[in-house]
Specification:
CATH architecture of the largest domain: 3-Layer(bba) Sandwich
CATH topology of the largest domain: FAD/NAD(P)-binding domain
Structural class: alpha/beta
Radius of gyration: 23 Å
Number of domains: 3
Bound molecules: flavin-adenine dinucleotide, iron/sulfur cluster
Number of strands: 16
CATH superfamily of the largest domain: FAD/NAD(P)-binding domain
């Protein structure tokens, strides 16, 4: 283990961030490295618990005490080997994961958790810098051909695993470049796209073919793809955005979060021409939705020099500490401040938008009412409007960041007859198989809008299940938390 008394001697030190004023002037990543000496101390805080609850918290089953111990001993290469056994892309989770492992860390019962997420970033960046991350094409090919639809984290993880098992993998992506929400949703200040390009180049060198700009369904068709390949992996995400159904929605100045973020990502990395309708510069901005997507919109609006930004959440603010019914090691439902919220803007809670008002077709005002949670004995909690609590906000740009309702499935159902769940996601069994033989599904498309770490975990497990189906005997791919066989 690290240092037996490490967690007593050393407090948790989060990774430093760039100065707020400086980082608002550009789009570069804002989190800085801990550095090897501090990383060693932070890894040394890990107690190597007899029952490491962090494993349970991590959807990938990462071998957390093992890589912490290796970092504490200065064995960085070993740490990378341990980490990459269970995590296909630690450079993504090390930057972007909300770290359910840290919420479940035993230290978090009464003190600060081990800095597990940052450790993943320190280890993976060290590995890239030292040249330890190399293309590893499979030693032999099976002769089986697999198509993956979608190149977000789920599609990338599934493709990497299926390729490692020796299958010949082609990834179909409708966008101009691969990466899914990693490229077009998440802003550069959280993930610089060079990090994504570096990984995709490795995957290409391993033999995976990316066919970008191909919207399966609109072009080739799902049925043709299924007939052409031995297996079909669906990883199309869940991009259908929740709508705001109020009078005035049609006004100019009301945009969906993904249109807003995608535009900025194209401007930053692809040199696209800025579109004034999707720019916050000089505008009074309101973001509806208090979650991560809303927070990314806030950081984007601040960098675009908005006159003001308010992030509005429908639900009341959560408590500052865990409520009684929300004990460790469950995910803590507490008030959080994201790096974007730290940078500026206002936050408002318990506000329900009633209508939008405009002049000459342009959005000018948002009318909202305060709500509160009422609990009747035995009944489910419900939101109730507070009489006389109307509030009017001046607004030029309203960004809708109220979540996603599921994947686009029209063509999929029409051409393949794939069954859907009652929530409108692609229905899969415990082995990620859809209702159509040889067609598997992973990530947000089957799970509903979720997290990168779940997309990776599903992608890996779905690849294992497909490999088993293709080979007919046993899979060479590992399951959750298990060592690789290759
Ligand atoms: C703004 C934003 C910020 C987020 N930030 C975080 C974060 O910080 N941390 C975190 O853990 N999670 C975050 N998430 C959630 C996370 O990004 C998703 O859970 C994850 O990307 C899902 O991966 P996926 O591969 O299933 O889908 P996606 O990433 O959505 O990828 C699906 C891909 O499939 C392609 N596709 C769809 N249909 C077709 C078709 N017919 N033909 C070809 N290609 C197709 C799409 O173009 C897309 O590239 C965020 C989400 C958003 C929207
Ligand atoms: S639960 Fe926390 S302290 Fe225990 S092994 Fe996991 S990371 Fe280390």
């Amino acid at each position: 283990m690290g240092k037996p008394t490490g967690f007593v001697e050393w407090p948790r030190v989060p990774a430093p961030k760039r100065d707020k004023a400086e980082r608002l002037e550009d789009w570069r990543e804002l989190v800085l490295p801990l550095g090897p000496e501090e990383a060693k101390r932070q890894a040394g805080r890990c107690m190597d618990c007899g029952i490491p609850f962090c494993h349970q918290g991590c959807p990938l089953g990462n071998l957390i005490p093992d890589f912490n111990d290796a970092v504490y001993r200065g064995q960085w290469k070993e740490a990378y080997q341990v980490l990459s056994r269970t995590n296909t892309f630690p450079e993504f989770t090390g930057r972007l994961c909300p770290a359910p492992c840290e919420a479940a860390c035993v230290l978090a019962i009464d003190r600060d958790a081990v800095t597990i997420e940052q450790m993943e970033k320190e280890i993976s960046e060290r590995a890239f810098a030292e040249g330890w991350v190399k293309p590893r094409p499979p030693a032999r090919r099976t002769g089986k051909r697999v198509a993956v639809v979608g190149s977000g984290p789920a599609g990338l993880a599934a493709a990497a695993q299926l390729n490692a098992a020796g299958h010949t993998v082609t990834v179909y992506e409708k966008d101009a470049r691969a990466g899914g929400l990693l490229r077009y949703g998440i802003p550069d200040f959280k993930l610089e796209k060079a990090v994504l390009d570096r990984r995709i180049a490795l995957m290409e060198a391993e033999g995976i073919v990316f066919r970008v700009g191909e919207d399966v369904g609109a072009t080739k068709g799902f049925r043709a793809l299924r007939e052409q390949y031995d297996g079909l992996m669906l990883a199309m995400g869940a991009r259908r955005a929740r709508e705001l159904d109020v009078p005035g929605r049609e006004l100019s100045g009301v945009v969906q979060a993904m249109d807003y973020l995608e535009h900025q990502n194209r401007v930053v990395t692809a040199g696209a021409t800025p579109d004034a309708r999707l720019e916050a510069t000089g505008k009074r901005v309101i973001i509806l939705g208090g979650g991560d997507t809303g927070s990314d919109c806030l950081g984007t609006a601040l960098r675009q020099d908005a006159a003001s930004v308010t992030q509005v959440e429908l639900m009341p603010a959560p408590p500052s500490v865990r409520a009684q019914g929300n004990p460790w090691p469950r995910w803590p439902l507490v008030f959080r401040t994201s790096s974007s919220q730290e940078e500026g803007g206002e936050r408002a809670f318990a506000l329900l938008t009633k209508r939008l008002e405009g002049e000459d077709g342009q959005l000018k005002r948002l009318h909202a009412v305060h709500v509160e949670v009422q609990r009747e004995p035995g009944g489910a909690p419900k939101l109730v409007e507070v009489p006389g609590s109307e509030q009017v906000f001046d607004v030029d740009l309203l960004v809708l960041a109220m979540g996603f309702t599921g994947p686009e499935t029209g063509k999929l159902e029409e051409e393949l007859g794939v069954a859907l769940s009652p929530r409108g996601t692609v229905k899969v069994d415990a082995k990620f198989a859809t209702s159509v033989p040889g067609v598997y599904c992973a990530g947000d498309a089957s799970r509903g809008a979720s997290l990168i770490v779940w997309a990776l975990a599903d992608g890996r497990e779905a690849a294992r299940a497909m490999d088993l189906w293709l080979s007919g005997t046993s899979s060479v791919l590992p399951t959750r938390g298990q060592d690789c066989a290759f």
